[in-house]
Amino acid sequence: MSLAHTISPRAPLGHVRNDWTRDEIRALFDLPFPELMFEAQRIHRMHFDPSEVQISTLLSIKTGGCPEDCAYCPQSAKYDTGVKAEKLMRLDAVLAEAQAAKAGGASRFCMGAAWREPKDRDVENVCAMIEGVKALGLETCATLGMLTQTQAQRLKRSGLDYYNHNLDTSPEFYGEIITTRTYKDRLDTLEAVREAGINVCCGGIVGMGEGADDRAGMIAALASLPVHPESVPINMLVQVEGTPLTGTGKLDPLEFVKTIAVARIAMPKSVVRLSAGREDMSEETQALCFLAGANSIFYGPKLLTTPNPGRDRDMALLDKLGLRPMER
Ligand code: SAM
Ligand code: DTB
Ligand code: SF4
């Protein structure tokens, strides 16, 4: 039996389980790198075509001025980052961006708003956007902050395919990063989204000064949700001047790759997204992330407010690696 298999005696690796302990996750992180990568790639191939990458494009439909204090975020009103607070975008402008994203090759369009939680009126406006984007033939995703059950149900009726709401880090480190809402608040929103029948997109950020145990705690929290998120974004902190996390020591890129590999093993059927942080990531690190089981990226020159690689650069990379966009 291989070293990796001794970690999960209750069920063979590659099967979906929701009872991961932090120690088991930590043991995956501690595997020799070749063993970890081999298992991640083996499990990836059990459930996915290894040459396919899902392509999403992000749009900030409501930028800046957020009342929350997330220490990583350029859109918090509490930090002076140069991001100006704007109003919710108009429907026609959003649809023009969605059309451009589709023409550029995206299959999913994610709309993000810098809200703590939307008002019911905001939800109505976003529902009109979702209907319009879906009519273009794109999958839809939204990230609007905390939701009530009624709001989640309303979004579902508009046809929303995915809702993004991250746990961000381990329960223990969370208080160092956000004080204006609790871990439990996040779990409640995730439950409302799940109950409403919307696919869940939920992940976190690494490189925030957390320890190896926190990275394991974050993956353990995600992998022990009652149902695994269908989509798991793993973000590398994008350090933005003015946020409390600027100047945090850079995380070793191989630790990022390992986080992706462990997410792949712990949530075998979820799409794992190599998310924020690619602008400053070498092609070699990104290639290792794909090898570790990442099979989704944000595509287009901007994330919400920060830069992302240009389309040409990404297409050249995918081409070089023989990867192709996943069909819907
Ligand atoms: N306001 C909503 C919320 O917080 O749920 C939606 C938008 S918020 C920007 C979505 C996610 O983006 C956050 O949960 C965080 O994981 C990620 N994010 C924000 N700023 C980031 C940064 N500087 N680097 C990496 N990820 C970041
Ligand atoms: C996620 O996990 N990462 C995306 C998406 N969900 C909404 C956002 C990344 C934001 C990076 C900072 C910015 O561009 O403002
Ligand atoms: Fe606001 Fe979301 Fe940024 Fe937190 S992550 S400050 S909730 S926009």
Outline the structure in words.
This protein has 328 residues and is of the alpha/beta class. It has eleven helices and ten strands. It has helices spanning 22-29, 33-47, 91-103, 120-135, 149-157, 171-177, 183-195, 212-223, 253-266, 283-291, 311-321; strands spanning 52-62, 108-113, 139-143, 162-164, 199-201, 204-206, 231-236, 271-274, 296-298, 324-325. Strands 1, 2, 3, 4, 5, 6, 7, 8, 9 and 10 form a ten-stranded parallel beta sheet that branches. Strand 7, helix 9 and strand 8 form a beta-alpha-beta unit. Helix 5 runs parallel beside helix 7 (183-195) and helix 8 runs parallel beside helix 9 (253-266). The structure holds S-adenosylmethionine (SAM), 6-(5-methyl-2-OXO-imidazolidin-4-yl)-hexanoic acid and iron/sulfur cluster. 6-(5-methyl-2-OXO-imidazolidin-4-yl)-hexanoic acid binds next to strand 2 and strand 7.
Give a brief rundown of this model.
The chain has 328 residues and is of the alpha/beta class. The chain contains eleven helices and ten strands. The chain is globular.
